[in-house]
C-alpha cells in the first residue's frame, strides 16, 4: 500500500516537472468559467491528474483570483474540485450574475461570429447568471435568446418552421440558412463602423449634390431672366413690322379682314402721311 502511494506521488512529481505544450493564458479578470474550460482542455492534453491541476492552476492566477487562492485553507488549495468551486463562487458574485443575465438578454449574433460560437457564448452567460439549474428551463431560455439574437430573416424562418426542441437543432438550422444565402460572410457584411462611415459619406454627397442643384437653378433663373430682357425689345420691334389694319389701326390683320367697327379718319389733314407711315 505504501509502495503504491509512493509510486503515485512520484508520478505526480514527474508530471509537475513536465512543461506541457498546450497552455492557457494567465487569468486576471473576466469570465473565469470560460477561461477554466480552456485550462481543462490544456490539462487533458498534457495528461495532468487533479493533484497536478490544482498545483498548475495557481501559477496562472493573477489579481483578485490569486488573492482568493492565497486566502483559501490548505485543504482547499490541494483539492482541485474544491479549489475550482471556491474560485467560481468568489469570482462570480451576485452583482456579476445580474450583469451576466442582462448581457444574456441583450446578446445578438456579432459580425463574423459563427452560429455555434454564438450559442456557446449564450450558454456561458446563462451559467454565469446562475438563473436556474433546471435543464428544461435553461434550454427554453437559450432557444428563445438564440433565435431572437439572429438576423430578422433567420429568426422569422426558424420561428415559422418546424418545432425546435434543442439548441443544437437550432444551431444546425441557422447554419443551413446561413450557408444558403451567404449573408453572414464577414467579407460581404460591413461592420457597424463601416456602415457609419458609409452613411456619412453618402450624406456628404447628397448635401453636395443638393448645393449644386440649387446653384444650377439660380443660374438658370438668372439666365432665363436675361434672355427674356433681350427678347422683349426684339418682339416689340417685330410687332412694328407686322401688317397693320388701315381700318382700325391694329396689327396682325388687313382692313378687308377687320371685324372691328372702328374706322380711322383717313380724310383729315395729314391722313395720307399717316397711311404712308403705316405702310413703311
From TrEMBL:
SUPFAM superfamilies (UniProt xref): Retrovirus zinc finger-like domains
Molecular functions (GO terms): enzyme binding; nucleic acid binding; zinc ion binding
InterPro entries in the record: Znf_CCHC, Znf_CCHC_sf
Annotated CCHC-type domain residues: 244-260
Region feature (Disordered): 261-280
Keywords: Metal-binding, Zinc, Zinc-finger
Stretches with biased composition (Basic and acidic residues): 271-280
Protein name: CCHC-type domain-containing protein
Source organism (scientific name): Trichinella papuae
Amino acid at each position: 500500500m505504501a509502495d503504491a502511494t509512493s509510486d503515485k506521488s512520484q508520478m505526480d512529481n514527474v508530471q509537475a516537472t513536465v512543461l506541457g505544450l498546450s497552455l492557457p493564458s494567465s487569468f486576471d479578470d473576466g469570465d473565469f468559467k470560460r477561461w477554466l474550460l480552456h485550462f481543462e482542455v490544456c490539462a487533458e492534453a498534457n495528461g495532468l491528474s487533479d493533484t497536478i491541476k490544482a498545483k498548475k492552476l495557481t501559477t496562472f492566477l493573477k489579481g483578485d483570483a490569486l488573492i482568493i487562492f492565497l486566502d483559501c485553507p490548505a485543504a482547499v488549495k490541494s483539492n482541485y474540485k474544491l479549489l475550482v468551486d471556491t474560485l467560481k463562487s468568489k469570482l462570480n458574485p451576485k452583482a456579476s450574475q445580474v450583469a451576466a443575465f442582462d448581457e444574456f438578454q441583450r446578446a445578438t449574433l456579432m459580425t463574423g461570429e459563427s452560429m455555434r460560437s454564438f450559442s456557446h457564448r449564450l450558454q456561458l452567460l446563462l451559467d454565469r447568471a446562475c438563473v436556474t439549474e433546471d435543464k428544461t428551463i435553461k434550454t427554453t431560455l437559450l432557444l428563445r435568446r438564440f433565435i431572437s439574437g439572429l438576423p430578422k430573416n433567420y429568426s422569422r424562418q426558424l420561428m415559422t418552421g418546424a418545432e425546435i426542441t434543442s439548441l443544437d437543432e437550432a444551431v444546425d438550422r441557422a447554419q443551413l440558412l446561413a450557408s444558403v444565402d451567404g449573408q453572414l460572410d464577414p467579407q460581404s457584411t460591413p461592420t457597424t463602423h463601416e456602415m457609419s462611415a458609409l452613411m456619412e459619406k453618402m450624406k456628404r454627397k447628397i448635401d453636395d449634390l443638393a448645393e449644386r442643384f440649387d446653384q444650377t437653378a439660380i443660374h438658370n433663373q438668372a439666365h432665363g431672366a436675361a434672355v427674356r430682357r433681350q427678347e422683349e425689345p426684339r418682339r416689340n420691334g417685330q410687332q412694328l413690322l407686322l401688317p397693320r389694319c388701315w381700318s382700325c389701326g391694329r396689327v396682325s390683320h388687313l382692313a378687308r379682314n377687320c371685324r372691328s367697327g372702328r374706322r380711322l379718319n383717313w380724310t383729315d389733314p395729314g391722313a395720307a402721311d399717316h397711311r404712308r407711315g403705316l405702310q413703311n
